[in-house]
Amino acid sequence: MFEMWNNVSSRLEQVQQSQTQTQQPHTSSGSIKAQIEIIPCKVCGDKSSGVHYGVITCEGCKGFFRRSQSSVVNYQCPRNKNCVVDRVNRNRCQYCRLQKCLRLGMSRDAVKFGRMSKKQREKVEDEVRFHRAQLRAQSDSAPDSSVFEQQTPSSSDQLHHSYNGGYTYNSDVSAYTPAYYTNTTQVQANSMGYDISADYVDSTTAYDPRPGLDALNDTGSLMANVVTTDPSQISELLSKTISDAHTRTCLLTLEHIHEMFRKPHDLSRLLYYKNMAHEELWLECAQKLTTIIQQIIEFAKMVPGFMKLSQDDQIVLLKAGSFELAIIRMSRYLDLSQNCVLYGDTMLPQDAFFTSDTAEMKLVTCVFEVSKSIAELKLTETELALYSACVLLSPDRPGLKGIGEISRLSQAVVRALRLELDRNHSMPIKGDVTVCDALLTKIPTLREISMLHMDALGKLKRSAPHLEFPALHKELFSVDS
Predict the structure, then answer these.
(1) How far apart are CA 50 and CA 25, in angstroms?
(2) Which CATH number characterizes residue 109's domain?
(3) pLDDT tier at 210 (50, 70, 90 boundaries)?
(4) For residue 89, what pLDDT band results from cuts at 50, 70 and 90?
(5) Does 387 lie in the same domain as 258?
(6) Which of 76, 166, 236, 257 could be a cystine partner for 196, CB 3.0 to 4.6 Å?
(7) From CA 438, how far away is CA 166, in angstroms rounded?
(8) DSSP label of 43
(9) Which residues contact 293 (CB under 8 A, 6 or more apart)?
(10) Residue 404, Cα to own-chain centre: how many angstroms?
(11) Domain final residue pick, 46, 79, 114
């Protein structure tokens, strides 16, 4: 009965969309509405038809959100409130689909009043301009790099196997991916379940199996049929793209973070966290960490060349590097003058995360120390983005297969990082040690802290096996494998 209703609902949406498209008046090529349609639906990734209730969506998601505002609606998730919401699966869970609509900013007030606010309109117009600029850069001036090309999935990557109870995180690639990837072929799933590995990079993950990369030099491996072979221009392009990926996947801007630094401390919230039970504190931190890692996954998919790697290698890099990238991002939230971190909407000192367990205290101390040492280098957002990409693309992670491709991509990112740092930090920080040297020497420390995290987590799960962590957290930080 449930599947029959889903089929009927999906068919109604298709009919509604085709009718609406037929009835729509012709718009000039210069109109905002026509330009908006180059951006896929933010909810499910299908072809959008404009801005509906403050968000760019297709007709199906527009109608769904309108219907969801009825007072009699009370959706329930039959799973774990983390269902995939994409073009194929959007009708399988109304609860998760509605939550995604709300999370993206679809407004209940817009249903009542039928118009966007000025702020919403400006946001949409900015996004249209961004996509148009990316398209122009791709067609006019961007080098024809293999890391920026459309990517054709191999047949092996189209196979998604059922995984019972696995995390089905839909990372909504269309919401963040720049024009270089907007035409990537989507792979339809054949069942309600997905292989857990595939869910980290979702059904748009692509692998380009073309031979011959090993025969190219370092630059050629990244830039096939190049318009320019100037390494500095290649580095500039990498810097711009990776910086944009970072900016679009950070939960808060630096301006907002610094504004929060200036607000008075909420002592009641501080006491709340300091008095939190041991297990409750772990779950609270795990939830915050999972939210950050969802953005890190989006960032990884926008790093040039990442989605050209085999799916297995993408999973290895994400599993190994996600905690390390979370520590790097934490440096943005540290107020060095107060020695506190912005945690949600509260400024907390290091000891707010202390427990009676010695290993856990060491973990917290090390996380704060390395994050503080990164913050002290006063990196720009572009430098932090490049450093994150450098840590992500570590070719010596155990289990990698395409080590040659990852090594060459990593070297290109390091070159771009050095150029950026030389431009902004020309003076060495001590003796002849440059900022770049200091950052690269922190990588082994990040790995040690990641292992401390796994050890502490493993100890906790053995002592409290009943604890239920977020699904993505369980998959990334499995202590059983």
Answers:
(1) 13
(2) 3.30.50.10
(3) very low
(4) confident
(5) yes
(6) 166
(7) 39
(8) T
(9) 322, 326, 472, 473, 476
(10) 25
(11) 114
168 falls within a domain: no
Question: What percent of the chain clears pLDDT 70, i.e. is strictly above it?
Answer: 67
Is residue 420 very low, low, confident or very high in pLDDT (cuts 50, 70, 90)? Answer: very high
Average pLDDT estimate for 292-316: 92
Give residue 224's pLDDT band: very low, low, confident or very high (50, 70, 90). Answer: very low
d(CA 151, CA 407): 20
The count of C-alpha atoms lying within 13 angstroms of the C-alpha of 236, restricted to the half-sphere facing its C-beta, is: 11
Give the integer Cα–Cα distance in Å for 193 and 162. 4
Mark whether 240 and 92 lie in a shared domain.
Answer: no
Q: Which domain holds residue 65?
A: 1-23+32-114
Same-domain check for residues 294 and 439: yes
Contact 52, 65 (CB under 8 A): yes
* DSSP secondary structure letter of residue 346: E
Q: Does residue 142 belong to any structural domain of this protein?
A: no
Most confident of 5-14, 72-81, 181-190, 269-278: 269-278
Same-domain status, 107 and 242: no
Residue 68 lies in a domain: yes
Q: Looking at 114-118, 296-300, 475-479, which range is the least confident one?
A: 114-118
Q: Which residue has the higher pLDDT, 12 or 77?
A: 77
Query: Is residue 242 very low, low, confident or very high in pLDDT (cuts 50, 70, 90)?
Result: very high
Do strands 340-343 and 346-349 pair parallel, antiparallel, or not at all (unpaired)?
antiparallel
* Rounded Cα–Cα distance for residues 242 and 383 (Å): 10
CATH number at residue 285: 1.10.565.10
d(CA 167, CA 96): 14
Q: Please, are residues 222 and 305 in contact by the beta-carbon 8 Å criterion?
A: yes
Rounded CA separation 348/334 (Å) = 10
Asked if 143 and 236 touch (Cβ cutoff 8 Å), the reply is no
Q: For residue 121, report the phi and psi dihedrals to the nearest 5 degrees.
A: -65, -40
Mean pLDDT is lowest, of 69-78, 167-176, 290-299, for 167-176
What single-letter DSSP state applies at residue 433? B
Q: Which residue has the higher pLDDT, 24 or 287?
A: 287
Q: CA 97, CA 103: separation in Å to the nearest integer?
A: 10
Answer with the one of 98, 114, 130 that is the final residue of a domain: 114
**Alpha-carbon dihedral of residues 172, 174, 180, 183, nearest 10 degrees?**
110
pLDDT of residue 454: 95
Domain-embedded: residue 210: no
In whole angstroms, give the CA distance from residue 121 to residue 445.
45
- 115-119: long-range contacts, CB 8 A cutoff, minimum separation 24: 116/51, 116/54, 117/54
Residues 108, 238: one domain?
A: no
